[in-house]
Amino acid sequence: MTIDRTFLASEDEGKLNWDANNNVMYSVVNKEAVNPYGEYRSYKIMPATGNRNHLTIQNSTTLGKSANWATHHLYAVQQKDTEPNSAYPYNGRDPNNPVVDFAKFFDGDSLDQEDIVITTKLTTFLFPPTNSYMNLGMHHIPDQSDLPNTVFTSAVSSMIIAPQNALVGDPSRSTIHQTRLNLVNGSVADALTFGSKQPTCSFDMGRTRPRLEEWTGEVYEVKYPYEPDAQMIANPGQGGLGGIP
Prior knowledge:
- Mean pLDDT is about 80; it is low at about 120-130 and about 235-245.
- It contains no helices and 13 strands.
- By secondary structure, the protein is mainly beta.
C-alpha cells in the first residue's frame, strides 16, 4: 500500500467531494514550514461523525444561482477581502442574479502558497496560507415517528480540523493526567499517578432544579411578514397566542 501526495494548483481544482471510502484526506499545507523530520506542518480536514451531505437539488428554478456554495462537500479558493462570504441574505430576492454568486469565486487564481479560507455553510475558517468552504448538512426522509413533533436524533453532521505533523510526538505523554500500572506476576504492584489527584468538592444539587413555575410560554418569531421587533408568546395555560400580532 502506498500514499500518493498531490497539491491543488489553482481554484480550477478547488471544488472537492469526500472520497466514498475515505481514501483521500485533505490538508492545508505551508510548504515553507517543516518539522524536524522534513514533513510539512499542516492542518488536516476530514469528515467526522454523522452525515456527509451536500445539496442534491441541481438546476433548481427556485434557487437559481443563489446556492452555488452547496453543490460540493468542500471548496478551496484564494482568500480575498472582496469575497468575505459565500452567500448573502438577499440572494433569494433575485436567485438568478444573486448579490453573491459563489460560482464566480472560482476564476483560476493560484492556491500555491497563498492565503486560503476553509468554510462550512455554518462556519468559516481562515488559514494562512488559502480559502475553503465546506458543507455540513443532512437529508431528511419523512418518518411516521416525526408526528406530531419531528425530533432530529440523527441530524448530526461534523468535520475535524486538526494539526498534522505540527508536533514531534504524542502530546499526552507530557500531561500528569495519566496512570501507569506496574505488574508483578499479573498483579498490580504499584500505581503511579504522576502527581495528579482526584478532585473532590461539595455541591447543592437543589441549585440545579429548573424553576418550572416561572415558565411563561414559548416565543415564536414571526417570519411572514417579517417584523424584527414582533414576537408572539404562546402559553397553553392561557389557551392561545398573546403578545404582538
